[in-house]
Amino acid sequence: MQSLDDAASSLRCITMAPILFDFGFIKLYGYGSMIALGVLLASVLAIVDARRRKLPRFEAVFPWLFLSMAATSFAGGKGLWWIMSTSAERASIASGAGFVYYGALLLVAPCTILTLKLFRVPLLPAMDTLIMFIPFTHAFGRIGCFLAGCCYGCHSDGPLSVTFHDGIGLNGVAVHPVQLYEAAANFAIFAALWFWLRRMTLPAGSLFGLTLILTGSSRIVTECFRGDVVSALWNNETAAPGQCPTGLTQAQAIGTVMIFVGLLWLAQLRSLGKR
Questions:
Q1: Cα 141 from Cα 164, distance rounded (Å)
Q2: Which one, 50, 62, 76, 203, has least CB within 10 Å?
Q3: CB neighbour list of residue 224: distance below 8 Å, 6 or more residues apart
Q4: How high is the pLDDT of residue 274?
Q5: Are the CB atoms for 33 and 22 separated by under 8 Å?
Q6: Residue percentage of the chain with pLDDT more than 90
Q7: Whole-angstrom distance between the N-terminal and C-terminal Cα of the chain?
C-alpha cells in the first residue's frame, strides 16, 4: 500500500513545460511536434487504407487533398478561436497560440467533400478512409496540449492529478490530466474503427456517421473534467480557472449536434440501402 501511495504522490508531482528541446537557435515545442507526428502517421495510414479499398485516384490526388485539409483546418481552428477569444488573447495569435478543434472540423468536412468531388474520387469510401484519422490526429494534438499545459483539467487531488509549471495554462495547481483522457478516448475510437468496424461489411459512408457519434459522445464526457472553460452556454455563472464547467459548454453542444447528424447520416444510408 505504501508503494502505491508513493507512486501516486510521484505522479501528482509531474511537471510539464511547452518546450521539449531548446537548441538555442531553435526551440522544439511539444504541441507542434505532436501535431506534426500525428499528421505524418495519419497520412501514411490513409494511403494504406485507400490501397486496401482500391480507391481510384485517391493516392494520386492525396497531395492536393492534404493541402486542402491542412489549410482549412488551420483557418477553421484559428477562426473559431478568434471569434471566441478576448482582445487580450487575440494579441497572442502571432505566437501561434489559440486553436479550436471543432472549428477545424466544421470547416474541413465540407471543403474535403468539395475537393473529393472536384477530383472525382468516390465520395463515400474516401470519406470513410479520411474520417478515421480525425480522432487519430486529435489524440496526438491532445498529447501536445498536455505537454504545453493548455486545455487543462479542473482541480483534482486524485492519484492521476498533475501539476503544470511554466505551461501556457493554469500553473501550480493539481488538476485532472483531461488532455490525456481525451487522447485515450480518441485512440480508442480510432482503434475501434481501424481494427473492427472497417473490417465489417458496412455500407460505404458508415464510418463517417459512426465517427461523428463516437467523437461527439467522448467530447461530451471529457468536457466535464475541463478546467479552462470560462463559462457555459445558457448559464450566466462564470467558472474560475480550474473549476469544472457549471452547465452545457459550447463543445458539448457541438458534440450533441455531431451525434444527431451522425444518426441522421446512418439512417439515410440505411434508407438508401433498402431502396
A1: 18
A2: 203
A3: 244, 245
A4: 54
A5: no
A6: 24
A7: 62
Measured distance CA(171)–CA(138) in Å, rounded = 24
Band the pLDDT of 106: cuts 50, 70, 90. Answer: confident
Question: How crowded is residue 124: how many other Cβ atoms within 10 Å of its Cβ?
Answer: 15
Do the beta carbons of residue 223 and residue 245 sit within 8 Å?
yes
192-202 pLDDT, tens digit each: 988 887 677 78
**Helix locations, the chain, DSSP H:** 2-12, 30-53, 58-84, 87-90, 101-118, 123-131, 133-148, 178-195, 206-222, 250-274
Predicted pLDDT of residue 85 = 64
- Rounded CA-CA distance 248/82 in Å is 21
- Tell the residue number behind the cell numbers 472536384, with chain if given: 118
Distance between CA atoms of residues 72 and 91, nearest Å = 22
Residue 148, CA distances (Å) to 32, 33, 135, 136 in order: 10, 11, 20, 19
Residue 119 DSSP symbol: T
Q: Can you give the pTM of this predicted structure?
A: 0.82
Tell me which residue has cell 501536445. 144
Q: What cell numbers appear for 78 in the block?
A: 484559428
Which of 207, 179, 193, 215 minimizes the C-alpha distance to 105?
215
What are the grid coordinates assigned to 217, written together?
A: 459522445
**Cross-strand pairs, 22:** 27
Residue 242 — left, alpha, or beta (φ > 0 → left; ψ -120 to 50 → alpha)? Answer: left
Q: What is the pLDDT of residue 218?
A: 95
Domain boundaries, the chain: 2-55+122-274
Q: Rounded distance, CA 146 to CA 47, Å? A: 29
